[in-house]
Specification:
This protein is of the alpha+beta class. About 25% of the residues lie in helices and about 20% in strands. Among the domains are: about 60 residues, no CATH class; about 70 residues, GMP Synthetase, Chain A, domain 3 (2-Layer Sandwich); about 60 residues, no CATH class; about 50 residues, Roll (SH3 type barrels). The longest helix has 27 residues.
């Protein structure tokens, strides 16, 4: 059996499991452990738990229980961190670098110093690292963090009057959205729903599930419901007190309890007197039939033309009398009843007189048959 202990290195920080071995430890004790970053001093947040060897895996062993000398070393390291913080801030101001230093952490054996800072973008801090390494003669690590981590490291008092949740007991950040504020009927004012870091308050997530469960038992806003004495539309819902504000048809406001609702209300009836009379429709004019008449006339003229053409073919051919004459006047066309065809108009300059020759302009008399 193995004795597993849970340790934290900073207040409200992440917790890590270690194998206590044969050490007799209790909750609140300080121990010296070996981590990936180096040697550190942590505090037990949970009492030791016995687990089987196969279930624990490969956990690091606790080196020893912290002594008074170890705690004195921690105090000296804390003073060195403050000095390094002031020195680094002065160098940042001299170089006018677009970054904000948040915190400095030294390893227990002073083998490395970590400088935490925030910035809007990437920062070229190579010259700054050279100055720090030349002054403190140790390994320097620059680590950029977010605004929520900055508030966790710095600490402070929230708008509720208490210490910030992230710096007191909240170990991991949970995603927070505006939907949580809407579900709790909070005013969407950025000054009231934002924390010290400028992000949405972490406490919006605490009661979100409770509000979602309770809201299922209440009607939605805008729904029409009925009670024993009235019928109206739901205007407001107070989940904590259980009160529902109804707006009646006569614009009267009443407050009822959830148990007083009997069911859905019928839609409001429109009074007959209030209904506006339908406007009279103007009499429709009779539809013109001129297009039909035109089609009929066209059809009649086509039939008459076809009938006249058939009559002309059936009639016997009349002999044509030809006479020798020198008159160049064209003879009149026989009148057969057929409609005279329309020829395309041609200019007189292009017409040639009948019987003319290219050598002479005098017409040639036509010979008789």
């Amino acid at each position: 059996m193995s004795h597993i202990v849970t340790i934290q290195f900073t207040k409200a920080g992440k917790m890590f499991d270690f194998d206590a071995g044969s050490l007799d430890l209790a909750k609140g004790d300080h121990v010296v452990v070996e981590t990936e970053r180096g040697v550190g001093v942590g505090q037990l947040v949970k009492p030791p738990v016995e687990k089987e060897d196969g279930a624990t895996g490969s956990l690091a062993l606790v080196k020893r229980k912290a002594t008074a000398e170890d705690m004195a070393t921690v105090e000296r390291i804390s003073q060195k961190e403050q000095e390094a913080y002031r020195f680094c801030v002065n160098r940042i101001i001299e170089r006018t670098m677009p970054m904000k230093l948040v915190r400095v952490e030294y390893q227990f054996d002073s083998s490395k110093a970590v400088f935490f800072f925030t910035a809007d973008g990437r920062v070229d801090f190579r010259d700054l690292v050279k100055d720090l390494a030349h002054s403190f003669h140790t390994r320097i690590e620059m680590r950029q963090i977010g605004v929520r981590d900055e508030a966790k490291m710095t600490g402070g008092i929230g708008i509720c009057g208490r210490e910030l949740c992230c710096s007191s007991f909240l170990r991991e950040f949970q995603p927070v959205s505006v939907k949580m504020a809407k579900e709790q009927n909070l005013a969407l004012n950025p000054n009231k729903i934002s924390g010290q870091c400028g992000r949405l308050l972490c406490c919006l997530d605490y009661e979100y599930e409770t509000y979602c469960c309770l809201r299922k038992n209440f009607p939605k806003s805008g729904k029409r419901v009925r009670t024993v004495t009235a019928v109206g539309v739901v205007d407001k819902v107070n989940i904590l007190t259980g009160n529902i504000t109804l707006k009646l048809d006569d614009n009267k406001i009443i407050v009822i309890k959830r148990d007083e609702i009997l069911g859905d209300g019928a839609p409001a009836a429109v009074p007959v007197a209030a209904a506006a009379p339908a406007p009279l429709r103007a009499p429709q004019r009779p539809r013109e039939r001129r297009p039909d008449q035109r089609r009929k006339q066209e059809k009649t003229s086509l039939e008459s033309y076809t009938q006249a053409e058939s009559n002309a073919k059936a009639a016997p051919a009349q002999p044509v009398r030809q006479e020798n004459t020198t008159d160049t006047t064209p003879t009149d066309a026989p009148k057969t009843g057929l409609p005279r065809k329309k020829h395309r108009s041609r200019k007189h300059a292009n017409r040639k007189p009948s019987g003319s020759t290219p050598d002479s302009g005098t017409p040639t008399p036509s010979s008789g048959a």
